[in-house]
Amino acid sequence: MIDLRLLRDDPDLIRASQRLRGESTELVDDLLRADEERRAATQRFETVRAEQKSIGKEVAKASGDERAALLTRTKELAAEVKAAEAAAGEAEQALRRAHLAVPNVVRDAPPGGEDDFVVLREVGDKPEIADPKDHLEIGERLRAIDTERGAKVSGSRFYFLTGVGALLQLGMLQLAMQQAVEHGFTPSITPTLVRPESMEGTGFLGAHAGEVYRLEADDLYLVGTSEVALAAYHSNEIIDLSGGPSRFAGWSSCYRREAGSHGKDVRGILRVHQFDKVEMFSFCRPEEAEAEHLRLLAMEEEMLAKVEIPYRVIDVAAGDLGSSAVRKFDCEAWVPSQGRYREVTSTSNCTTFQARRLNIRYRDADGKPQTAATLNGTLATTRWLIPILENHQQPDGSVRVPKALQPFLGREVLEPR
Fold it and tell me: Which residues pair with 360 in a beta bridge?
């Protein structure tokens, strides 16, 4: 949620953010109105409740006609208090619905939509490969990827990673977790099923609710990223940030319905329903968030350097941000078979948006509770196998293993079978 004090002080700032996102400014007006109505309803309830308490004290001292009149008024007030309390509760719920509908306030992101990103830098040399094979053809020759049996067992957009494919993913994720630990992150294996309040608190039940798998019988959701579980880890807590940001690295399987992507990226493992990922997550003071965002980006670039693939960093445009993010950087790896860059990491600064929903606070220098900031970033995921296999393919069909991954696979080259 956005800060209601900011809304009251500068509603035009929120409206400007909505326009940058390409979303309706009416949501801001709805929230302003709901805020005013909630405050009015609360004041009405407090006024009649105070009168009720005052008359209750007077009844004990009164007698005769005065006492009778006070008792009559007491009965009237009881009904008024009950109605005012109900109205205040309804106004509170209406405010929450309006509050949840407004995304975070964009900060420094380029204007525009999905194609209006700004390239910040390109890193690494693109390999010169005559007639590059795509990752699925390479993976099938290595007996590393099996989409045919994945579809037989589970349906479209599922797959098996077998042999060196499984080892390559496990090695990559272990390498990512090792790096995270070296940088002071707490390693975590997170739940992949979460309660609705956890999913809502991180902003995944808004515009992108259609991407989420729900288990109706249990009222639980399958996460699309361990960000959800890691964010909710400290929900309704006051955490200690006196020593700096609190950082976690979560390893989990992730699930996405890929709703609306029919016919898009159907070949291979680029856009699938299930994948594994190591996700970084930070809790920090709001004034530390921008520096922490750059730190997470540097972590992602360090991992990409280790697997020796060329990539570029983009500043994502406002209209392509998730509802929780004020700014997002993506790293896109070069994919030779497609002759273009494809996203492999994202890191988002969510400021206090998620923590306000989840009631995560810290104590400031004066000991007063304040809302924390949260940030997230991908450190490695199944999709990385695509640029790893394609950029390191050899003319004879083999694949060179990046040096950092060789200890996990026990070989320098993957040979076709």
Answer: 237
Torsions phi, psi of 9, nearest 5? -75, -35
pTM exceeds cut of 0.85: yes
Residues 130, 335 contacting (CB under 8 angstroms): no
Q: Which residues are catalytic?
A: 256, 271, 343, 346, 383
Instruction: Name the residue among 100, 372, 96, 92 with its Cα closest to residue 237.
Output: 372
Q: Which two tokens stand for residue 158?
A: 């599922």
Residue 150 burial by Cβ neighbours in a 10 Å radius (0-12, 13-18, 19+): buried
Quickly state the pLDDT bin for 59 (edges 50, 70, 90): low
Tell me the H-state helices in 101-163.
Answer: 135-141, 147-154
DSSP state at residue 22: T
- Rounded to an integer, what distance in angstroms lies between the CA atom of residue 349 and that of residue 105? 11
pLDDT of residue 152: 97
Count of beta carbons in the 10 Å neighbourhood of residue 336: 21
Q: How far apart are CA 357 and CA 204, in angstroms?
A: 12
pLDDT recorded at residue 278: 98
Task: Kindly report which listed range (154-158, 207-211, 331-335) carries the lowest average pLDDT score.
Answer: 207-211
Residue 52's nearest CA partner among 73, 38, 69 is 73
pLDDT at residue 246 greater than cutoff 80 = yes
Distance spanning both ends of the chain, measured CA to CA: 53
What percent of the chain stands above pLDDT 90? 83
Write the DSSP assignment of 201-235 as a string of letters. Answer: HTTTTSTTGGGSEEETTTTEEE-SSTHHHHHHTTT
State the sign of the Cα–Cα–Cα–Cα dihedral 249, 251, 257, 263: positive
